[in-house]
Amino acid sequence: MLDLATLVSMYRGRGEPVKAPSGDYFACSLSFKLVREAKCWFGLYYTQSAWDQLVTRGSQGYPLTEAEMNALGLAAHLDEHPNSREFIERNIGVMPQMGYMIVNDLKTFGFIAEDDQHLLYLTEHGEDALQGIARRIYDKKYIPEMLYVNQQRYINPGSKEIHKSPNASQIDLF
After folding, report:
1. Closest CA to 46 of 59, 63, 33
2. d(CA 129, CA 60)
3. What is the pLDDT of residue 127?
4. Are 118 and 107 in contact (CB under 8 A)?
5. What mean pLDDT do residues 40-49 have?
6. Within a 10 A sphere around the Cβ of 49, how many other Cβ atoms?
7. Cα separation values, 41 from 15, 38, 113, Å
8. How far apart are CA 119 and CA 121, in angstroms?
9. How confident is the model at residue 137 (pLDDT cuts 50, 70, 90)?
């Protein structure tokens, strides 16, 4: 399992061009071509043309994943689920710390906005990005059933089991 710092570093480094060491090549994950220079994300390598296929229409060049789609979808449906920042961070299918970072990125790119009560809502650019990522992943227009919370397959990683052991009274730091 990756620690949070490594996960954040890999997430932040998405799309950065990397060169293969002398005498080595990268294999593109989509085209299976061998290349000397590629774009890297979470240990997978992509040619520029393959990377361009992954960039979602309407996302202004920001590479969206299913986690971002969940955040955008939760911000879009104000009546079905609470659109508080905390609820969205905990229910997008990643650990809450990563959810915090993803929500901040979506705010920075102008896909979501936050009001004084820390409620998140979708912007016009966010609506375009949501429709684009839904079409890329599911090949159809976005519907709320695409979200993790509506599919009931996501278990909130914030909850911890209570372990019965001789040291149970000791503070659990992790």
Report:
1. 33
2. 8
3. 93
4. no
5. 86
6. 11
7. 6, 10, 27
8. 7
9. confident
33-37, 41-45, 163-167: which range is least confident on average? 163-167
Q: How many CB atoms lie within 10 A of CB 105?
A: 16
User: Could you tell me which residues come within 8 angstroms of residue 60 by beta carbon, excluding any fewer than 6 positions away?
Assistant: 109, 110, 125, 129
Provide the whole-model pTM.
Answer: 0.72
**Bridge pairing between strands 37-41 and 34-35:** unpaired
3-state class of 111 per DSSP? coil
> What kind and span of H or E run contains 14?
none
Residue 77, pLDDT > 90, answer no
Query: What sign does the CA torsion over 89, 90, 94, 97 have?
Result: positive
**In terms of DSSP bridges, do strands 37-41 and 120-122 run parallel, antiparallel, or are they unpaired?**
unpaired
Length of the chain: 174
